[in-house]
Amino acid sequence: MGTRNLVSIADLSNDDIEEIFEYADSCDKLRSDKVGSCKIMATLFYEPSTRTRLSFESAMQRLGGTVISCSDMQSSSAAKGESVADTAKVVSSYADVLVVRHYWDGAVQAMAEHADVQVINAGDGGHEHPTQTLCDLYTLRKEKGALKGLNVVICGDLKNGRTIHSLVYALARFGANVVTLAANGMELPQYVLERLEREYQYTLAPVAGDDLSAVVTESDALYLTPKQPHQLALFTQVDSTIQTRLTSMVSGLRYDAFYMTRKQKERIKNGAAGGSYPSIGSKFLTEQRFKDTVVMHPLPRIDELSSEVDKDRRGVYFKQAAYGVPIRMALLHFLFEKQRQHQFIKSGKGAAIFESPHKTGPHCPNSKCIAVNEPGSTRLRYEILAGGPAAALVLRCLYCDHRFKAHLVGQTTSKKYCAYDIALAETVKQWLKKSELAIFDSIKQAEELGYEPYKSGPQRAIMDDREIQSAVRQMSEQILKDCEDPDRLLVLGIRTNGSLIGQRITAQMEQLQKRKFEVGEVEIYGTGDDLRRIFPDEPELGPVSLRDRSIILVDDVIHTGRTVRTALNIIFRSGRPRSVRLAVLIDRGHREIPIKPNYVGKHIPSAEHERVRVHLGEVEPDEKDKVVIYSITSPSES
Amino acid sequence: MTTEKQLLLGKDDLAKAMTRMAHELIEKAGKVDDLALIGIRSRGVHIARRLARKIEELTKQTPPVGIIDVTLFRDDRPRDQTSAPAVAGEISVTVENKIAVLVDDVIFRGRTIRAAMEAVERLGHSNRILLVVLIDRGSRELPIRADIIGRNVEASDTQRVNVLLEESDGIDQVVVTPWDSRNVN
What we know:
The complex is a heterodimer.
Chain A: H1 14-25, H2 27-33, E1 40-45, H3 51-62, E2 66-69, H4 84-92, E3 97-102, H5 107-114, E4 118-124, H6 130-144, E5 151-156, H7 162-173, E6 177-182, H8 190-200, E7 202-207, H9 212-217, E8 221-226, H10 242-247, E9 257-260, H11 282-286, E10 294-296, H12 307-311, H13 317-322, H14 324-340, E11 353-355, H15 370-373, E12 381-385, E13 393-397, E14 403-406, E15 408-411, E16 416-419, H16 425-433, E17 437-440, H17 443-448, E18 452-453, E19 455-456, E20 460-463, H18 465-482, E21 489-494, H19 497-513, E22 518-522, E23 531-535, E24 550-558, H20 562-574, E25 579-587, E26 599-603, E27 610-615, E28 626-633
Parallel strand pairs in A: 1-2, 1-3, 3-4, 5-6, 5-9, 9-10, 16-18, 21-22, 21-24, 24-25, 25-26
Antiparallel strand pairs in A: 6-8, 7-8, 11-12, 12-13, 13-14, 15-16, 15-17, 19-28, 20-28, 22-23, 27-28
Helix pairs in contact in A: 1-14, 3-14, 4-5, 6-7, 6-14, 7-8, 18-19
Chain B: E1 6-9, H1 11-29, E2 35-40, H2 43-59, E3 65-68, E4 99-107, H3 111-123, E5 128-136, E6 148-152, E7 159-164, H4 166-169, E8 173-178
Parallel strand pairs in B: 2-3, 2-4, 4-5, 5-6
Antiparallel strand pairs in B: 1-8, 7-8
């Protein structure tokens, strides 16, 4: 599949980028030809921006087109809760191209999927900012001639800067060397390094100090280079300011450019993250070795660059900002041309794309991903990256690029699930090919969907219907005994089994107290409607009110505690209860989260590879209630 | 109700408790390599740093210490639904595939810890979260339990348990004072 959009810098080939640069070189001609006349560009900015937005608007007007925009998306229909999908659809009929900035990672991809016109990413969360990258590359090319073989030092906040990640990939594609010099705790994320290694065959050589332990507590420098590793010697002295650190680097290496970044204050709350932030000052300017090193910065700056650099010919950041307009004119023209010729700008690389057959998962673990925050606007689509570290099954979210390991796989036809193992690689490939692959976040999720373990040991009953009933009764009595104000009581069960047990507990309490209690349920894999009232079943009552309630949260089995934690997150997102107490039929141990139930029907010691399952008559009408324990194995072990 | 200030732990008691907690943490974690300490602002941070130093003394390995500020995640703070929640606090540790050790001075209702767990979840997928507190004063409102506790204290709702640390207060001690009289010294 190709795209007519610019969501990621990866949507453009090197040739495409060269073509855009050529257009930018002759932007006066684009202006006089009015190549954008009769076109309308809509700017949708969910986050504040000055230069990106103004340079886009200026670029469009210089091309002879017109611009419509919404001064503040926060006060528009988005604030009324309109999804990005709907906004994209609606605005598509008003404009020929949409320029979007959004605070969630991957939001622009989601909008591109729903828009009928071309979409340009003007920054999506901490994910990408491809037009800034184009502008950076163009500046480098203008100042240095060619990109191949350049030595570029990037320094500062390399963790939160979306521009930095796009820039590093792009530099890698054009064969430049990159030295990273991160502020303390703001190193380039591991997934960026892995992608550089995997896709661009970069070798990553850490630059160590004389005193290694001191370097570890300070920031690490990394030298990223295509194919041939470089010998790069070491800092003799550890200091967080750029000058001292770089003057102590071995000489002989020529630096073409310094790319400073701003500390992303809006993405990290509360100022300084321990240690000082690198800056460039007058000492840098007097260094002979840096006499041809240009200094770049995406702006706005805070205090990373002293004003002396402004006056120096090497400080090119205002030029860099000025190139924003021609490069965006060139990009718009490029996209219009592709549209006119009905050309896609990228042909697919034959990636293995997995789309989940189930709506409940797997979920992208990035809490800032659009797919997590607006499941209605997205699909559960992932690229399957084979041969990751430790031969794991790695999924890449198609929206935010976040990578994560899949632990549980299943086959839709046989309705069996098992833990992923390297021996299953070929099987999984076959399942994917035949669209029979399912992937789950947890065993609970698989079982909710009716999947059974691939192969399980003999089942051993550990509770029968009478024991379950007596456990429910005991818990109910205890809950009532502890309860100071029955009017505040609210029973919330975790769907499905926890909800059923919650209803049984409520029925028991009602019998004992001769009164009614409010009951609801929490769905932890839900897509929005996470909390529902079960009784009283009167829609006019509106959503369940949690304020000042004494909540009894109910589940069937507690294991790691992660399910309960998710349920607590949902509860506290929805209101502020007076207290939450936890009742579980079975506590099987192996906690990974510091959660402790207040009421336990039965403690059952279990091994990690064992499963405890509760069968309830409400779900399986022909069966008696029972709790069983058995061990599970995967197909590779059989 | 007494208006007297009651000393719970003096400097030596506190140091002893800290040493024991560090030992317990090493034992529970198995590998110091896997630990990522996260102090909850502000006294939790001092305690986390002391634990890290203690662990270094004992094992010659220094676990990283991050800082978390949970005020954004507290449930008693109104949420702005339309804006993206910011990354919590200042953190310089990665929790991916590690044991995240949340450290605070006092656990009481459990609300701070719940908020901190939500914040840690946003940092990435940790293998496990361990909760370490210097003082557990009971009266939990949420089903949360600390894994490692310096000292259990029975305190009524009309009392405050104050942890004073050299780093912030110039003295190492834990005292119980009446809730409403901060001026009693």
